[in-house]
Design a protein that fits this description.
Elements: H1 6-42, E1 46-50, E2 61-66, E3 72-76, E4 85-89, E5 95-104, E6 109-114, E7 137-142, E8 155-166, E9 169-171, E10 174-175, E11 181-185, E12 198-201, E13 206-210, E14 214-216, E15 222-223, E16 225-228, H2 229-241, H3 247-250, E17 267-269, E18 281-284, H4 289-292, E19 300-304, E20 307-308, H5 312-320, E21 327-334, E22 337-344
């Protein structure tokens, strides 16, 4: 039997190793090129949102994405939108003012509209959304940790859809009322500022919106999840057309302009997503009246000046009836104990 000389065998072996080493980088470069093309397609349609915030552990920035050339923006419903207008920064760094057009807090969904008219912006077509199954590779675009403040691109994470399941989660002591389907993502996507960001397939198809930071009810671990566009798109279209009225809007008492708000005492309540959302405290601002009274996140407000409080809305209404110098007594439930705190209502700061 004929055999190859040993030096030729060594040459062929070395050549095979070299070729194998070259094939991996070539394949990786092809993937990089594909991701770069998808990024160039997605980034111009993303926006950075800057609004309310500033309390301890409470960021003042989030993410959104454009769904019309006129400047309609889909984002997550959060405290960042708790002001009349917010600042949005387009991919090219241009600042615009936007207002909340409508919201459905139970879906953690809000739609903004850039105030300036005559815009022609790149956008996602809501007719071209898709769905995914476990194992699907995805890209997640968001302004997590306030990485982008001007014309910098938002961050991109690679991940995989681990499951599609019902959401069972809470924020502090408050259980989130939405129990519909979400995508669970094998990547750390739900970071500060990432809420309202976008999840796409690796070829750039619109798949889901990144939700807020939540913990699993059973394991108490943070959940990396996204809301499927199939759950959001019908409501988005209705808000854009002016045909949608959320449960929160239906029950707002517009006849009572609230003079005092929970934030005037350093209190941030859990999101008011249903008519009788229990009056749980979510955040207490350092150095505030609430902090001096030793109120804590997770406390449930039961009484304000001997008046029974059954919801966040009723708590705000009770505070709205106060005047400077009034006595204020709160009874809260903490674990299994009832705690009473008392103070005087301070003069409201002049915001002019």
């Amino acid at each position: 039997m004929n055999t190859l000389p040993s030096d030729r065998l060594r040459f062929l072996a070395a050549y095979a190793v070299l070729l194998a080493g070259l094939l991996v980088p070539v394949q990786s470069l092809a993937q990089v090129d594909t991701n770069e093309q998808v990024s160039q397609m997605i980034q111009p349609k993303m926006v950075k949102i800057f609004g309310a915030g500033g309390l301890r552990n409470l960021h003042s920035y989030s993410t959104g994405f454009l769904v019309s050339p006129e400047g309609h923006i889909v984002t997550v419903w959060s405290h960042v939108l708790d002001r009349d207008q917010v600042t949005v920064i387009l991919a090219n760094g241009r600042k615009e003012t936007a207002a909340v057009l409508g919201a459905e807090p139970q879906l953690d969904l809000a739609v903004l509209k850039i105030v300036r008219e005559g815009l022609q912006l790149p956008y996602f077509d809501l007719e071209e959304t898709t769905s995914a199954v476990p194992g699907t590779r995805i890209l997640a675009f968001s302004n997590m940790f306030k990485v982008a403040t001007g014309d910098e691109p938002v961050s991109i994470l690679h991940g995989v859809i681990a499951a599609k399941t019902k959401l069972t989660a809470r924020r502090g002591a408050y259980e989130v009322p939405y129990d519909g389907p979400v995508y669970i993502i094998d990547a750390i996507t739900n970071n500060p500022g990432a809420g309202g960001g976008l999840v796409t397939t690796t070829d750039g198809q619109l798949l889901a919106m990144i939700g807020k930071e939540l913990r699993n009810n059973e394991s108490n671990t943070w959940i990396n999840y996204a809301m499927p566009m199939s759950e959001l798109t019908p409501v988005i279209r209705q808000i854009m057309s002016g045909d949608y009225v959320s449960q929160q809007t239906k029950n707002d008492n517009e006849d009572n302009p609230l003079s005092y708000q929970p934030l005037d005492f350093g209190i941030l309540m859990v999101p008011d997503v249903v008519f009788r959302t229990p009056a749980y405290i979510e955040v207490v601002e350092d150095g505030s009246i609430a902090a001096e009274l030793n109120l804590r996140p997770g406390d449930l407000v039961l009484f304000v000046n001997d008046n029974l409080v059954q919801s966040c809305r009723e708590f705000r209404e009770q505070l709205g009836n106060l005047e400077a110098g009034d006595d204020l007594s709160l009874i809260v439930r903490r674990d299994d104990a009832l705690i009473t705190v008392e103070t005087l209502v301070p003069n409201k700061p002049d915001t002019n």
